[in-house]
Fold these 2 entries.
Entry 1:
Amino acid sequence: MTNTVTAFIGLGSNLATPSQQINGARSAIAATAGIQELTFSSLYQSAPMGPKDQPDYVNAVMAIATELTPTALLHCLQGIENEHGRVRTGERWGPRTLDLDLLLYGDQQIHLPDLIVPHIGIADREFVLYPLYEIAPDLHVPGKGRLSDLVANCPLRGLQRLIQS
Ligand code: ROI
């Protein structure tokens, strides 16, 4: 690939054996034309943000090199979400089989109707910041500051790194 950008994707699931959903999504992303996997974080277990009457989540972050535009990448991720059985119930912040978020795209700040980068919740979500910090500790988050400072100001809220089996 030529002319690639480093991008970061947040993965989350709390239904249908979450760790398998995450691993399946990882394979599907890595197999996409125009995407090369660079780094994959540990899996983390996290308490649900939003309604508490749903299972804990498994979250991870993936670094990729890509020659896709941000919008093309977003559409790829949405396609993989749909193929992996995501059912949109319409319930706000309800449980989900697979959630793929475009967190960062190089050092770009993007404001499109259906895509905001850096991802809206990035600075206060422990299940995004800690896995991201594991794989890219020196990162600067455009418009928000050093990742190390964001991590230092974000409580763990019970986040646990899972031991890989
Ligand atoms: N909570 C956690 N812990 N992890 C997620 O990935 C996640 N995703 C969501 C909502 C419902 C906001 N809560 C979450 O979309």
Entry 2:
Amino acid sequence: MTDCLFCKIATGAIPSEFLVETEHVVAFRDIDPQAPTHVLVIPRAHFQDVAALTRDDPALAGEVLAVAAQVAKIEGLSEGHRIVTNTGINGGQSVAHVHFHVLGGRGLTWPPG
Ligand code: 5GP
Ligand code: ZN
């Protein structure tokens, strides 16, 4: 999608530094970090949310989660971390290209606000 921020990041139209880059998935730091580690993991292809991703390409959903776990390892989050995907207005999704947040480096409260 030409008008999607994360498509532009994935294609390099908006230059970004990737922590992990595979054929189908990229990981990059959130512009407004909510924890010492706050990384976003996305498929390069555009899917609106986790429902669309798992419906249309469940294998890719597995690849995205594997990269999220890899990011946690790279960032040294052995004491724990959180992987979360927000969906829709009530879920707090502000970018309509599915993404998984990898958060860690401090104690995270539960439940979230
Ligand atoms: P959501 O609210 O949709 O779950 O998460 C979107 C995330 O994208 C937010 O945490 C926000 O800080 C991040 N974000 C928004 N614009 C940019 C950007 O241009 N670059 C990066 N790296 N992150 C962004
Ligand atoms: Zn997109």
